[in-house]
UniProtKB/TrEMBL annotation:
<feature type="domain" description="Acyl-CoA dehydrogenase C-terminal">
    <location>
        <begin position="180"/>
        <end position="301"/>
    </location>
</feature>
<protein>
    <submittedName>
        <fullName>Acyl-CoA dehydrogenase-like protein</fullName>
    </submittedName>
</protein>
<keyword id="KW-0560">Oxidoreductase</keyword>
<dbReference type="InterPro" id="IPR013107">
    <property type="entry name" value="Acyl-CoA_DH_C"/>
</dbReference>
<dbReference type="GO" id="GO:0016627">
    <property type="term" value="F:oxidoreductase activity, acting on the CH-CH group of donors"/>
</dbReference>
<feature type="region of interest" description="Disordered">
    <location>
        <begin position="1"/>
        <end position="20"/>
    </location>
</feature>
<dbReference type="Pfam" id="PF08028">
    <property type="entry name" value="Acyl-CoA_dh_2"/>
</dbReference>
<dbReference type="InterPro" id="IPR046373">
    <property type="entry name" value="Acyl-CoA_Oxase/DH_mid-dom_sf"/>
</dbReference>
<dbReference type="InterPro" id="IPR036250">
    <property type="entry name" value="AcylCo_DH-like_C"/>
</dbReference>
<dbReference type="InterPro" id="IPR009100">
    <property type="entry name" value="AcylCoA_DH/oxidase_NM_dom_sf"/>
</dbReference>
């Protein structure tokens, strides 16, 4: 099974296309996939920090740890003295230890037509951290973060989704967070393979790995996962290096968003399959596959793979205007 999981192009040191000269797309992918395979919560926190750092600065600076939420959860209203922020953002990883939060809010468009998403940098002391938590990602204690009537200076508001930025934030988020899911799915496949090789069904003298039906289903699942991961690698390698000054075209962003969404969904289904085939022992707290499943179901509710995001990707693929914040 090890050979089946060893997918994707070989790593190289030639400088793959990347979000910044100091961190290529390939390096970001590899770091997040490795982290996701060890602990999905810490993987997501790494992915979120790296994503927000493309706009507001490094995740590990003198300003302290950085986290946030990419789901538009608030409104930003312009006043004579600056802006006022109100809203609520669910499932923020590492909220209890972060000192800075990058939160996406909607403000009136500068063009005067509709609203547009912007990223607001908020210090820890200005937010309220809730006590509710999801079932998964327990290592980073995701929490709901809320803000009420917060005065925000102009320099804390970032046009992270404007065309001039190259739409780097959603592209980076898809690269990083899909990579976390790939690492988690690889872990799940390793666990179900180990379980099948060493355990038997109740009342059976044969190991699970000797069951023809499970062999067929597991092989199909692995091949689907490999194909999705290979597609992700292919589209990732086509993203231009920002250091080269090449702008991400609309077609390239849409194609990458579709590939990343498909890969993310395939990884989720891979984990669900692995958990479902592991038998009753996987239901117990502390079982590796139960942890994978809980983390996967939590990650399945992320904004960039929501039904709204899927509709936006499909709309853009058919020639519609890409939705800011999602493509």
């Amino acid at each position: 099974m090890t050979d089946l999981l060893a997918t994707g192009p070989a790593a190289n040191d030639t400088g793959e296309p990347g979000p910044a000269a100091a961190c290529t797309w390939e390096e970001l992918h590899r770091a997040c996939e490795e982290a996701g395979g060890i602990d999905a919560g810490n993987g997501l926190l790494l992915a979120r920090s790296a994503t927000l750092a493309t706009v507001v600065g490094g995740p590990a600076t003198s300003d302290g740890p950085l986290t946030g939420c990419l789901r538009p959860g608030g409104t930003l209203v312009r006043t004579p003295r600056g802006y006022v922020l109100d809203g609520e953002w669910p499932g923020v990883p590492g909220a209890e230890t972060a000192s800075r939060f990058g939160l996406v809010a909607q403000r009136d468009s500068i063009a005067g037509i509709g609203t547009e998403p912007v990223l607001v940098l908020v210090p820890r002391g200005a937010v309220h951290i809730g006590t509710n938590r999801p079932a998964g990602l327990l290592s980073v204690h995701p929490r709901t973060v809320s803000v009420t009537g917060l005065a925000v200076p102009e320099n804390a508001v970032h046009d992270a989704f404007a065309p001039g930025t190259g739409h780097l934030l959603p592209v980076t988020a898809r690269c990083a967070e899909t990579s976390v899911l790939l690492g988690l799915a690889r872990r799940a496949l390793t666990e179900i393979t180990r379980t099948a090789r060493h355990r038997s069904r109740l009342g059976s003298v044969h190991r699970m790995a000797e069951e023809p039906l499970l062999q067929t289903e597991l092989n199909r699942t692995v091949q689907d996962f490999r194909a999705a991961r290979a597609l992700f690698h292919t589209e990732l390698a086509r993203l231009p290096d920002s250091a080269s000054g090449t702008t991400l075209t609309t077609a390239r962003r849409v194609t990458f968003a579709a590939a990343a969404l498909h890969t993310y969904q395939t990884a989720i289904e891979t984990i669900r399959f692995s958990f479902g085939k592991a038998g009753g022992s996987a239901l117990y707290n502390g079982h590796a596959l139960q942890e994978c499943w809980r983390d996967a179901e939590t990650l399945a509710r992320e904004f960039l793979v929501s039904p709204r995001a899927e509709r936006a990707v499909a709309h853009a693929q058919l020639g519609g205007r890409p939705q800011p914040g999602l493509i």
